[in-house]
Specification:
Chain lengths: 79, 320
């Protein structure tokens, strides 16, 4: 079991993640699916409002699954 | 675990919460109780893959907080709103129904879907038998649906976390070009191969591609399979929709499906699952009848759900 920590992305980290073109296999498959959907949403509307919405969605996922997503968060902050 | 009809009736009589898979005929005969069910005649069990019209696969779910609901096309999008804040939901959708198509195309946009834990399957039938209908059953009311999804929502205590995983034995063929589609859908006449538009059926025939191998969509690094159902009148039909904006590649050939599953499952530390299902195409193309696949048992299905609809994939759910 992974440790439970509070992890939050900021808008700059979210932007980097949304614009990342490489492959990342996350432990939580939902994160790959969410990222794919949000990439499409951000590509269609690259505004600060959309970015903030994406950040909020990622952080809600991290918040909910903090016990099992620490390694996923660590991968993102290393980008 | 496979049970006789009489054993299933006894478990329902004990008021256990059950997930049941079996033939439409057997499901229709079961008494009302705390269960949901879906039709299939194919199963992965401890002693190997089985085809049986006489037995039912039953998963006992030892949870106290739950509700059973049915959803038609007009209400299906509410399925994530009805899920417990912490818990999971098992959804069964009849093959080729409007709810099957609607869920497949729109689930990723359902409110908070990735914050809920949605697993499930597409119910089917015996491919060699006539006069069968894929159904989903709400055991609490006895209603049998060919046109509605049935969902078991389960609530868990705050300290429990649900983990949904997949076992995908396929990897993209490094020699396959990138294939994209101009629009979402269960069928395609044309596609783009490395950016050049071609007639997809002609591309498949011209390159002698094996349509038993799935297309693997690149979901930002995770491979999601889409299987080819048929090619008719120059149109390629799929078991799940392709999406514009997703890059696909054909999968590499798998010489031995059972061995590929067992190798992958060997790497999984804990195989105690509350729910698992595997795909009918893996069962048929991989000749899994009578072959043992260690670890995960349950119905063999006509589409698998791990939030979104997948094909040719083993899905399992655990509580950690």
């Amino acid at each position: 079991m992974e440790r439970r920590v509070i992890v939050k992305l900021n808008d700059a980290q979210t932007k980097k993640l949304l614009e990342y073109t490489g492959s990342i296999q996350f432990k939580q498959l939902a994160l790959n699916m969410m990222l794919t959907r949000l990439k499409g949403m951000y590509k269609a509307n690259q505004t600060s409002v959309t970015l903030a919405k994406c950040t909020a969605e990622f952080n809600a996922l991290f918040d909910k699954f903090a016990r099992i997503m620490q390694s996923d968060y660590d991968q993102i902050v290393k980008l | 675990m496979l049970k006789t009809f009489e054993q299933a009736v006894a478990l329902i009589g004990e008021r256990k919460l059950l997930h049941i898979s079996g033939t439409e005929a057997l499901l229709r005969k079961l008494p009302k109780g705390n269960w949901i069910g879906g039709s299939t005649e194919y199963f992965m069990e401890e002693n190997g893959g089985q085809v049986s019209g006489e037995t039912l696969d039953i998963q006992e779910l030892a949870f106290d907080t739950y509700k059973l609901s049915a959803y038609g096309p007009a209400t299906l999008a509410a399925v994530t709103k009805d899920a417990y804040p912490n818990g999971f939901s098992i959804i069964i959708l009849p093959f080729d129904s409007e709810v099957h198509k609607q869920y497949a195309q729109n689930a990723a946009d359902y409110e908070d879907i990735f914050l809920k834990n949605m697993v499930g399957w597409i119910s089917g039938l015996n491919l060699g038998a006539a006069d069968q209908t894929p159904v989903a059953v709400n055991g609490s009311t006895g209603e049998v649906f060919a046109d509605k999804a049935v969902v078991l929502h389960i609530g868990l205590p705050e300290e429990k976390t649900v983990q949904i995983n997949i076992v995908n034995i396929f990897t993209p063929d490094a020699k396959s070009p990138v294939i994209t589609f101009g629009e979402d859908g269960f069928k395609a006449k044309t596609c783009f191969v490395d950016g050049k538009e071609v007639v997809f059926a002609e591309y498949i025939a011209g390159n002698q591609l094996d349509t038993k191998l799935p297309l693997i969509g690149d979901y930002s690094g995770a491979g999601i399979n889409i299987s080819i159902k048929s090619i008719e009148d120059g149109i390629v039909h799929f078991y799940a929709p392709v999406f514009a904006g997703i890059q696909y590649r054909f999968a590499e050939n798998i010489p031995d499906y059972a061995d590929a599953f067992n190798q992958k499952i060997k790497e999984i530390e804990n195989t105690d699952a509350e729910f698992a299902c595997n795909c009918i195409l893996n069962f048929l193309y991989g000749g899994l009848e009578g072959k043992k696949i260690g670890g995960f048992y349950g119905p063999v299905t006509f589409g698998e759900i791990a939030w979104q609809l997948l094909n040719q994939t083993l899905v399992y759910l655990q509580i950690v």
